[in-house]
Automatic annotation (TrEMBL):
InterPro entries: Na/Glc_symporter_sf, Na/solute_symporter, Sodium:Solute_Symporter. Keywords: Cell membrane, Ion transport, Membrane, Sodium, Sodium transport, Symport, Transmembrane, Transmembrane helix, Transport. The gene is panF. GO terms for cellular component: plasma membrane. The lineage of its organism: Bacteria, Bacillati, Actinomycetota, Actinomycetes, Micrococcales. It comes from Nesterenkonia cremea. This is Sodium/panthothenate symporter. One of its GO terms (biological process) is sodium ion transport. The keyword Lipid metabolism does not apply. It is found in: Cell membrane. It catalyses: L-proline(in) + Na(+)(in) = L-proline(out) + Na(+)(out). The keyword Calcium does not apply. It comes from the Bacteria. It holds the Pfam family SSF.
Length: 532
């Protein structure tokens, strides 16, 4: 227990230091939401990889590998990696404007309703984000509580309130606090899962013995449950039907690729080239992390044939770590799991709070928009309140963390896929098409899930596509101000003024950055700020 306490204290001390340091660099709303659009490559790699790695990946995926075998690699790992391969296509275009949006809903307004002072589509998008990201934060809290309670013996309810301190320290400092802690979290996760995989591999008698076990085992996932068919753990479908597995793959692949937090991450780098490169390098880092996670998930079946009655597969990784590792290695792996929860939850909480305050409340009342200092203070209070509610909601947790992420990613994909990809790569995509994607995608996906349709995401995706094409065909082309920032190197004076109006900046000349962004750039050039 002493190792766990020492490691936790050191980790929390770092979190507090990073938050206090970041607070000194937050001088504007752009700083708080996107780091002033000046994030460097390696900080970008660190925060991208850490945000990618949630409890759904480091705990949920090993749990599904333990219960269904290699099929989990197809449904979740392959799906998420396919999404990551698509993200550079978004990054190249979304960061192209010299003055980019601060948030995903602001991007949607710029692309589809740039001339509207009160943008209904921005409010609608932000409301959907608040729901989705609150669920994401909730799941991270649950994952953290499972890890700490399983390995340390601390009551789950106490553990999740401890998580609140981590969550708020990293989130209240804004983007730079999140990005800096995320970079360290990536290193911790990489080291922790490698140590955990080596331990599992040795304890299970090597990879060959693991494969032999998977070929022959019939042990139920949970004691007293139904026995597995021999060899099912090594079949491509595992315990899933083909339709169910493909639905999971498509939800993860197409939903994660345009998830608003990824689009938001691509707004932070200092230029489009950096945005693309950070995702390409992050993909390599993630491969180094997922190979150990696959070893842990499959090897756990050799070490623990069946989980104790009453436990879900989300518990398998901490259960194995507790039973088979040295306390020091266990403590380091525990921190890796906690870091995965913190690194995703702080980002999601920041998006949730920003959407609620900046994109909904301020959009609905533009005439009452306060000054920057007041806005940042109020936004921090919103983040604080959402964090407390997320922890309270996790007192009685659900099970199957990875599936919770799949549901939300499926919803995001159904609602935003054409809004993002067609908006960035098809000039004719217009406001009517965007509304068709959002309304038809959300409605169809919700109904399909409610009635238990075999592939809710695919049904919603196809319905939304048809609706988008019909809406675009029957309505006028978008105005030049909606298209120029993403399809031309320079924008007209009118477009520059429209962008400034949407962002609440002083109107710049055509093609120029805002005063806020120029000030940030001067500080970076002179050596100030956290981005190198």
């Amino acid at each position: 227990m002493s190792w766990y306490l020492v490691i936790f204290i050191l980790y929390f001390a770092f979190i507090a230091w990073a938050c206090l340091r970041s607070l000194r660099n937050v001088e504007s709303m752009s700083d708080f939401t996107t780091g002033g659009h000046r994030m460097g490559l390696w900080i970008g790699v660190g925060t991208s990889a850490a945000t990618w790695l949630s409890v759904a990946s480091v705990m949920g995926v090993p749990g599904y590998l333990y219960s269904t075998g290699v099929a989990a690699i197809i449904g979740w790992v392959a799906g998420w990696f396919f999404a990551t391969a698509l993200i550079p296509l978004v990054a190249y275009k979304i960061r192209r404007p010299r003055v980019p949006a601060r948030t995903f809903p602001e991007f949607v307004q710029m692309r589809y309703e740039p001339k509207q002072r009160r943008s209904n589509i921005r409010v609608l998008v932000a409301a959907l984000m608040v729901v989705g990201y609150f669920i994401f934060v909730h799941l991270q809290v649950v994952g953290f509580g499972i890890v700490v309670s399983t390995i340390t013996g601390v009551d789950y309810r106490i553990a999740i309130f401890g998580f609140l301190a981590f969550l708020l320290f990293t989130s209240l400092g804004g983007f730079w606090s999140v990005a800096v802690t995320d970079t360290v979290n990536t290193v911790l996760i990489l080291g922790g899962v490698i140590l955990g995989a080596i331990t599992v591999l040795n304890a299970a008698g090597g990879w060959e013995n693991i494969m032999t076990t998977l070929e022959t085992t019939t042990a139920p996932v949970v004691e007293g449950g139904e026995e597995l068919p021999a060899g099912v753990m090594l079949t491509p479908l595992g315990t899933f039907s083909l339709g169910a597995l493909m639905a999971i793959f498509l939800s993860n692949a197409l939903g994660a690729a345009i998830a608003p937090h990824w689009v938001g991450r691509m707004l932070a780098p200092k230029n489009a080239k950096t945005a693309v490169m950070q995702m390409m390098i992050s993909l390599g880092v993630l491969i180094l992390i997922f190979v150990p996670l696959i070893i842990i998930g499959l090897g756990a079946k050799t070490l623990v044939p069946s989980l104790p009655e009453g436990q879900s597969t989300d518990y398998i990784l901490p259960f194995v770590i507790e039973s088979y590792t040295h306390p020091l290695i266990g403590a380091l792996t525990l921190i890796a799991l906690a870091a995965a929860a913190v690194s995703t939850a702080n980002s999601m909480l920041l998006h949730c709070g920003t959407s609620l305050y900046y994109d909904i409340l301020q959009t609905l009342r533009p005439e009452h928009r306060p000054d920057e200092v007041t806005s940042r203070r109020r936004l921090r209070w919103v983040v604080l309140g959402l964090g407390v509610v997320a922890v309270l909601s996790a007192i009685n947790p659900p099970v199957l963390l990875a599936m919770g992420f799949t549901y939300v990613y499926g919803g995001f994909g159904a609602v935003f896929f054409f809004v993002v990809f067609l908006g960035l790569y098809w000039k004719r995509m217009n406001r009517a098409g965007a509304y068709a994607n959002i309304i038809l995608g959300a409605g169809t996906y919700a109904v399909a899930e409610a009635v238990g349709a075999p592939s809710p995401f695919l049904i919603a995706f196809i319905t939304a596509l048809v609706g988008v094409l019909v809406a675009v065909k029957l309505t006028p082309a978008p105005p030049a101000e909606a298209v120029e920032p993403y399809f031309q190197e320079e924008v007209s004076t009118d477009t520059a003024q429209i962008i400034a109006q949407v962002r609440g900046d002083a109107a710049p000349t055509a093609g120029a950055a805002s005063d806020d962004d120029e000030g940030r750039a001067r500080r970076v050039t002179s050596g100030g700020g956290p981005a190198a």
